[in-house]
Amino acid sequence: MRNQANMFKSCFKLIVFIFIILFLNSCKQKGCNDKSALNYSIAAKENDGSCIYCSTTISQNGTNTIYLTDLNTLSAHYNDTVAIFYLTQSTFYHNYHECGIDSTYLYLRIRNIINQGENFFFNFNANSLCDFVRTSMTYVTIPANQITDEILFDMKKFSGCSITGSTPSIFISGRINYQ
Predict the structure, then answer these.
(1) Is the pTM above the cut of 0.70?
(2) What structural domains does the chain harbor?
């Protein structure tokens, strides 16, 4: 009878041990345990593959090349092409609104194509579809036969705003002074 009692105790201990192991394993909460993920859960002890991450897609909306002709009849460069404006419009799209606000930027480079320095004072004008963060005149000096670094313009409102096509919605206005 003693052997039977010992065997019962041994079986009971084994069952309790298995129950504790199963219970502890079932307490491991699954979820996203990566701190860099949007849906990080501090309670998750085991990663279940559900982590969501931010990603950004960049779409080039268009490019445009504009040749600037000096139409000032009193200028030594009258009716000459004096500069070339290179415009690129890109939009940054985020996969989740928590990752940021979609935004559009206009990148401008200006090439001076004459043998004389140029000072440009210019601004972008646009139709009602476009709105720029920078609204003041931009000033840039370009040595003879040189090209500027990229100048970045942030657009606040850009739905339907375009630098290409038969009716572009962005225009450059300003003046040029020769050095």
Answers:
(1) no
(2) 2-47 (no CATH), 56-178 (2.60.40)
